[in-house]
Amino acid sequence: MHCKDQISHKDYQRSVDWLQSKTQHRPKVAIICGSGLGMLADTLQCQESFKYSDIPGFPQSTVQGHIGRLVFGELKGKTCVCMQGRFHMYEGHSIYKVTFPVRVFKLLGVETLIVTNAAGSIAESYHCGDVMIIRDHINFPGLAGLNPLNGPNDDKFGPRFPPMSGVYDKDLRKLAFDICKRMGVTQFVQEGVYCMVGGPNFESIAEARLLHKLGVDAVGMSTAPEVLVASHCGMRVFGLSLITNKVVKSYEDSETTNHETILEVSKMRSEMLQKLITEIIIHMDINNNQA
Ligand SMILES: O=P(O)(O)O[C@@H]1C[C@H](O)[C@@H](CO)O1
């Protein structure tokens, strides 16, 4: 990855101009759907959708379970934009391309970003099918210098040295938990630390044990770069991990992880997740339609 891959303000604006010429929707909330979780977009009313391949500057989704469409619409009167499929570095995209849509959302007027992902559990108490409200993250690629904010800082988006404490909005986390109580699903709900690794391989046992020692609750291959860029440009961030598999931490355990099982578990819980996210959006303060 080189800073030469960095994307200019003009390039983000080109994508924004294209989208605004095609849709009247002016979203305040953006949702990034993780592996197998794209069905949420299908529940939007008054939908208008665009294939990534048609949007200037957008890369292509290549992972199964990531459809590759940007869907605009309303959830109970609140205007949203939903990524049916995200980009991962392991697909070969630069980290700037992975986070490209987030800055496009910012320029479209989005104030709140909701990120979802499929993740493996490191915490002993977690089960497959649990939903983890993300309290914080460990960004391994970021710690190693692979950061979407590398290169000359664009002050129009945010400061050179952004803080990363308290990124996952406390009020939205509380709102989500209260909604889970009302939905009667708290037995499936956790709150914890998500760790991003580069992928595309799943973890070795020694790596899984290391993550456990570091206080990681769930591990995945996305989310942190998008959250970083959103937070840098002042967006409010809320994140959910769907626990799709248990990460093997014992040499006696012969179980292995695969993407197909991950997609099956995502499917199983997608309805609950859709309901939860819809309720969160309905109940969050949104300065709707005042672009
Ligand atoms: O986009 P997410 O983070 O939901 O995708 C997860 C991590 C890998 O991309 C893939 C592994 O099955 O699912």
UniProtKB/TrEMBL annotation:
Give me the residues that bind a purine D-ribonucleoside, please: E203, N245
This protein's source sits in the domain of life called Eukaryota
Enzyme Commission (EC) number: 2.4.2.1
Q: Where does phosphate bind?
A: S35, H66, R86, F87, H88, A118, S222
Residue ranges occupied by any Nucleoside phosphorylase domain in the UniProt entry: 28-281
Per its record, the protein catalyses:
2'-deoxyguanosine + phosphate = 2-deoxy-alpha-D-ribose 1-phosphate + guanine; guanosine + phosphate = alpha-D-ribose 1-phosphate + guanine; inosine + phosphate = alpha-D-ribose 1-phosphate + hypoxanthine; 2'-deoxyinosine + phosphate = 2-deoxy-alpha-D-ribose 1-phosphate + hypoxanthine
Q: Which SUPFAM superfamilies match?
A: Purine and uridine phosphorylases (SSF53167)
* An example Gene Ontology biological process: purine ribonucleoside salvage
Pathway membership: Purine metabolism; purine nucleoside salvage
Pfam families hit by this protein = PNP_UDP_1
User: What are this entry's molecular-function GO terms?
Assistant: guanosine phosphorylase activity; purine-nucleoside phosphorylase activity
Q: What Gene Ontology cellular component terms go with this record?
A: cytoplasm
Does the record carry Lipoprotein as a key word?
no
Arranged from A to Z, the UniProt key words for this protein are: Glycosyltransferase, Purine salvage, Transferase
Coiled-coil annotation: which residues?
A: none
How does this protein assemble?
Homotrimer.
Cited NCBIfam families: PNPH, PNPH-PUNA-XAPA, PRK08202.1
Described purpose of this protein according to its UniProt entry: Catalyzes the phosphorolytic breakdown of the N-glycosidic bond in the beta-(deoxy)ribonucleoside molecules, with the formation of the corresponding free purine bases and pentose-1-phosphate. Preferentially acts on 6-oxopurine nucleosides including inosine and guanosine. The purine nucleoside phosphorylases catalyze the phosphorolytic breakdown of the N-glycosidic bond in the beta-(deoxy)ribonucleoside molecules, with the formation of the corresponding free purine bases and pentose-1-phosphate.
Family listed? Belongs to the PNP/MTAP phosphorylase family.
Q: Which PANTHER family match?
A: METHYLTHIOADENOSINE/PURINE NUCLEOSIDE PHOSPHORYLASE, PURINE NUCLEOSIDE PHOSPHORYLASE
Q: What is this protein called?
A: Purine nucleoside phosphorylase
Source organism of the structure: Ictalurus punctatus
